[in-house]
Here is the input.
Amino acid sequence: MTELIREIDPLRARLALARERGLRVGVVPTMGALHRGHLALIAEARRRAQVVVVTVFVNPTQFGPNEDFKKYPRTLEKDVEACRAMGAELVFAPENESVLYPPGDETRLRVPETTKHLEGAFRPTHFEGVATIVLKLFNVVGPGVAVFGRKDYQQLQVVTRMARDLFVPMEIVGIPTVREDDGLALSSRNAYLSPEDRQKARGIPEGLSAAVAAWEAGERHVQPLIAAARLPIAAGATSIDYVACADAVSMAPLDELARIERKAVLAIAARYGTTRLIDNVVLGEDPAPIG
Ligand code: AMP
Here is the structure.
């Protein structure tokens, strides 16, 4: 049975009971509009914990002023149903922002180095909002484990860094990106794409797959790997924010002329119409998104 909880106190009371009984709590933070990617996170949380809390909260502080906070899809009833089907015990979905940002709230968390480049460079306040809400949720839930998707690779590194730096006593797990049959990463934002742009967005998995193929053929220089990824993306995208390689832990960018010596991620952000999509592969680790 899945229980929908909308306030902090009843959630804490429920979880305190679980912990007293020695049960490990797992949390899956989401903004709702759940798809198969989210469901894979819940499945992983269930493997690692006896009580799973899915949080559903469209977090205002991680949206920039011109971003899609207002139009972000909100589908709570369906989300609770999906959590039920996945066997999650609890859904924590605050009714409004003031549950997690009560009047007078002002504290914000910064993870300056990990957020300097890639998404952080294009969305300057985004990760401050992410780090802040994630620590709030960790403090409310008190989980033994939290599960995130590698689809938002930099976010996973930000949360991992934050939890280490602040000695948050829990495990953080990242799971591989769940994709459509044609390789496009599942995202709540895919719903915004027109049918034409949805077709064009196949350029993203094509580009990432071309980079993986080049890597597997022995290419270790940044520039040709980026060039391989960029070509199919540029063919269909309205605009590209970045196609770049970064250190897979620190997220420091790798110079285009460099040779890759340590684990690296190739990450992209591109717009199709007004819809901004991100994706990535960890070179030498992730399979090609296509085939
Ligand atoms: P969101 O609801 O978009 O904020 O995402 C909530 C969590 O789901 C984050 O940890 C995301 O990385 C993860 N996630 C989103 N899309 C996918 C996907 N296609 N595969 C795996 N995880 C995902």
User: Anything to note?
Assistant: The chain has a mean pLDDT of 98. Residues 30-31, 37-38, 40-41, 148-149, 151-152, 175, 177-178, 185-188 surround adenosine monophosphate (CB under 6 Å). Residues 188-282 form a domain with the Pantoate--beta-alanine Ligase; Chain: A,domain 2 fold (CATH 3.30.1300.10). The longest strand covers residues 239-247.
